[in-house]
What does this fold into?
Amino acid sequence: MKTDANNDTPLLDVADLVVDYRRGRTTFRALNGVSVTIGAGECVGLVGESGSGKSTLGKAILGLTEVTSGRISFAGSDITHAKGAARRRLAADLQVVFQDPYGSLDPTLTVGHILAEPLTAAGTGRAEARKAVAEMLDHVRLPADTVTRYPSEFSGGQRQRIAIARALVRRPRLIVCDEPVSALDLTTQAAVIDLFIDIQRETGVSYLFVSHDLGVVRRICHRVSVMYQGECVETGPNETITRNPAHSYTRRLLLASPVADPARQAERRRSWLGLRTATGSPVP
Amino acid sequence: MNEAASPAKTAPVSAKQALWSRYLRRPIGIAALAVFLLVVIAGLFAPLFAPHDPNFVDFALTQAPPNSDHLMGGDSAGRDILSRLLFGARTTLYGAAVACLTGVVLGVPAGVAAGYFGGLTDRVFSWISDGVQSVPGMIVLLIVAAGTGADFTVLMVTVGAFMAPGYYRISRSKALAVRKEPYIDAARVAGLTHIKILHTHVLRAVHAPVIIQSALTAGIAMGMQTGLQFLGIGTASDPNWGQMMNDGFRTMLTHPLILLWPSAALGITIAALAFMGSTLADLVSVRTEPAPRRRRRAQQPSDETTSSTGELVHPAELSALRIENLHVTYGTPHGDKQVVRGVCLDVAPGEVLGIVGESGSGKSQTVFSALDLLPMDGRATADGIWLGGQSVGELPRAKRHALLGTQIGYVPQEPMSNLDPCYTVGHQLVEPLRAVHKLSKAKARERAREMLLRVGITDPDRVLASHPHQISGGMAQRVLIAGAVAGNPSLLVADEPTTALDVTVQAEVLELLRELQQEYQMALVIVTHNFGVVADICDRVAVMKDGRVIETGTVEQIFAHPGDPYTAELIKASQDDTASRAELDAAWTKAGRTVHT
It folds into this structure.
C-alpha cells in the first residue's frame, strides 16, 4: 500500500473552500469557507440536510464542479483547479461512489466492461484488467459470472456493490462516497456499510462519507463534520457528534431520526418538538 | 448479505439483441422490413433479375400494355418498365444512403458535442443548425444542380446537408439527457477523456434514435430525389423512378399504367421505411413488451388456492379499510407473476396501520389495489375490499374512482414526480376540488389556501403561484398532503411518504401526518420500510415479505416480542444505537487483527 513520505500531512486537506453556483444572473453560495481534513485509512463523515452543501464538497474534490476560492490539496499537492491530464492522473488515487444505484451504471454496457473501463482508460492490458475485475468482484462478494451481465439484472444493493468495485478497481487512496446507501433498504444498507468497513480494513483506503443519516455515519465514520447551509457547524470524533453534540442544529438532526422503539421514540419526539419550538422555522 | 447471492433471473441478453427479437415479434415491423429488404435485394441484384437491358429501345414496345415477356409493359420510348424499375431501385437507394450518411456525419457528432459540452459549443452548432433550416432547400438544390452539372451524388450530399439538423437535434437532446446521468460523472472521475466518454457512453445512447431518424430521413430523401429527377435534374443515363414518373405523367390520360408502376414502387418503399421507423420508435420508448390484454373486470372472487395471510381484527362494517385475501398478478411475456399472495388486513377509523416490508415485498401493490390504481398490466383479485364499512369490490370502476378524493386521500412516495411541472401548485390543488367537490373557483382557491396554511406553509399565496420546480421536496410533500386531506377523507393512504426526504424533513412530515390524523380522526395507512417510522406514528403493524403478511400486531407487541425472525431483523436494521465505528474497531483489534493504515 502506498504511504505518504510525511505522515503529518493529511491525505486530503480542504481549506476555506467556497463554491458559488450561478443560476442566470444570480449566484448561490453552496459552500462558504469549509475546511476538512482526512488522514490515510480514515473515514470522515459529512452530514447535513439536503441543500446543506455536503454533496457539493464531494463534487468539488472530484473536480466535477468549479471552485470559487479556497484550496484542496491531495497528498501534499494542490488539486483545486486540476483539469485535463492532471485530473485524469488523479483517477488512480481518487474515486467516487454515487447515491443512485440505477443512474450510476451505464445500462448499455456489461458489468465487466463497466469495471474494466477505469483500468483500460489508464492503459492496462485487457488480460490484466480482467484479472483485476475478477478480484474486485470477489472483494465486494459478487459471483464471478457478474461480468457478462447487464446492470438492469441486479437489485439496488447489488448495483451499489458493482459501483464500489468500480471505485476500488484502480486501488485508490480516497473514495468520495456520496450518500451511497440512502437509496437502499435498511437491511441492505447494513450489509453494504459492513462491506465498506471490511474494504477499508483490507486496503487502508480513506473515505469521505456523505450522508444525511447520523445512524449510518455513527457506524462507519471515525470523525464527523456537520454541514448546515453551506457551512461546517461542528466537527469532532464520531462518539461526540452522535451522542453529545454541541451545536443545536446537530442535536436537532440527531433527534429527527426516528428510533425503532415506541417508548424511546415518543421521548425523542418530545425533545425534538421542544427544540423545534425553541429554534423556530418549522417549514423546511 | 443475501441480496448479493442471487442476481435477478433474467437471461443475459444485450439490449441490442433484445431490441431485434422484440422487433421481429411485431407483424407490421416484419412486413415493413420484408418489403424494404425486397427493394434492397431488387436494387442490388438488378442485373440478375432484370429480364431486359433497361436502356434497350424496342419501338414495338412503345407504350405497350403488360404481356408475358414484358410484365409491366413498355414506356413511351419503348423500354422495358420492369427492368427500368429494378435498376431505378439502385439509384433510389444509393441516393437515400448518400443523403442519410451525409446527415449522420454532419449532424450526429455536432449534436453529441453540443449536448455534452453545452455552453459555447452548443450555441455555435445550434446557430448553424437553425441557419440551415431557414434556408429554402429547393432553391439551393437547383443552384447546386446548375453549378455542378447536375451531379447526382453532389445533389444527394446537399439533400443530406439539409437533413443534418434533424440528426443534430435528436443527438443533442439525447446527449443532453445522458450528460446528467451519474455514470458520466463516474466515467470522468475514472479518468476517461472526453473523447472516450463520448465514444463509449454518449454515442451508445444516441444509437437507437439515430437509426429511427434514418428510416424517416431515407423516406424524405427518396421523395426529394424523385422530385428532382421528375424535374429532369440528375443523371439521365441511369434509369430512375422520378424520370419514369415524368414519362408516365405526360401520357397519364392515355396510358396510366406507365405512371402507376414507379409511383407504387416509391410509395411502398417510403411507407415501409416509415413503418420500420415507427415500430422501432415504439420499441425504444417502451422498454417492456405489453402482456396479452385481459378485460379487467370490476372485481373477481379470488380463485387462488393458496391460503390467505394476515389477520382481520375489526368487523367489516366498522372498518375504514378492509382487504380480504388479496392477490395481485402481473402479466409478463414469460407468464404471470404473482406479487401479492393472499393478503388480509384492516384498519379502523382513527387508527394508524403501518405496512412494513422491503422493496419487492408487495406492500405498495397492496395499497394500489385498495385504491384501484394498479397499472394496466396488473390484475387484482380479492374476496372482498371494504371502504368505510361498505363493500366496494363489486362496484364498477367509475364509482370506485369517485371515492378517491372524497373518502380516500393518497400521499405518494416521490413528491416531485407527482406534481405536474407544467402547472402551478395552485392549479393542481384547485382543479380536483372543483371537479370532485363541485366548488366554485374562488371557493376552491380559498380552501386550497386554507389547507396550505394548515400543513404549515406560511406563505400560501406564493406557493400557490409557484411551479413545482420552484419549491423544495419537503414543501412539495406538504402540498400533496394538503391536496390529499382537502377533501376531508375518512382514510388517508401514504405510500412511503418520507423515503425520498432527508431525516429533518421526514420528522416534519411525520409530525404533520400525526397532527392531521388526530385532528380529522382519519384512518391512516402508512407504507414504509423503516421501523423507526412505525415506532413514531403507528398503532398497529403488518409486516410483509414476498407478497405475504408474515406478522401483524400492535406496535407495543411487535417491538417487544417480534414473532418472526425477519421482523426482528428489520427492527434491528432501523436502530440507530448500533455499535459506533470506534467500538467496532476496538473489538476488531482486541480480536488480534490490525487495522490497515
Q: What stands out?
A: The first helix of chain A runs from residue 54 to 62.
